[in-house]
Amino acid sequence: MDHGASSSVTDQSLAGESAGDIDRKLIQGMISDAPAAAAKFKVSTLLTIGGKNLRKRKQPMQAGTSDEQPTAKHSKSASKTNDKAFKFVNYIYICKKDPPKAQKPPSQSNSKINYDLYIEKGPFKFTSNQPFEDYTTVIAAMLQCHKSKLILDELKYKQKVPQTSQIHSLTSDLAFTSLIEEMRAAKTVNKWIMYIFSPAPICPASDEVWWTTTNEDGQELVPSGFDFSQLEWQGTEDSIATQRKKFNDTVKPFIVKLEEKFLVDNFLTLFPG
After folding, report:
1. Angle, helix 132-143 to helix 173-185, in steps of 10 degrees
2. Are 37 and 135 within one domain?
3. How many domains are contained in the chain?
4. Which residues contact 63 (CB under 8 A, 6 or more apart)?
């Protein structure tokens, strides 16, 4: 076949056709001339050189269509930071018995708390990765009572900072987890201070040994138990009497020693005339 004649015929037949049609026919002609070579290429859509057919359409890239996989940006060491244990400070507040009518504990969780209505125990430090059971054990130790004497159904907590922080229940592992997460979310160490509000422990029977007071050597470690007299309200006169008694008890050993060395009414013997 004369390629020159074919080319001239092709040129005449292509006259007046669009650029897209011309390109398509040229491609089809090449495929028919060399089918074996064309079979090596898989063409799902014929792209032409025509201007209208080369418009680029911006489509969202689907996941997995590119060698570069998108990487999610995380805050630095977020998981490691969340799992890192920390120590926080705790104070225990026990409400006194029958407060005066003019002074009542707050009825609303966000009301300002009058700490004069409570006695304070502590502080003690606790590590965030320890369980709630250990937490209640330490509370019992601070109150010098067995854990069974705690009224856990009425245990509550609040953060020291801010002062308007809410009071929450602390009666389960889930509540304790919330307590830890509140402090973990805090950005300052000042917020790692927790106030625990608890009723007084259950008073033991008179013949019940409820607190270990000695170590292996027989030395006393702590007082014999929770001092329930601290919960009693005192008027002005009672307060003065209590202070006087405390002073007398403190100086009594020194007075005894002085009286042994210097007998009472012995000034005539020591200082005759």
Report:
1. 90
2. no
3. 3
4. 69, 70
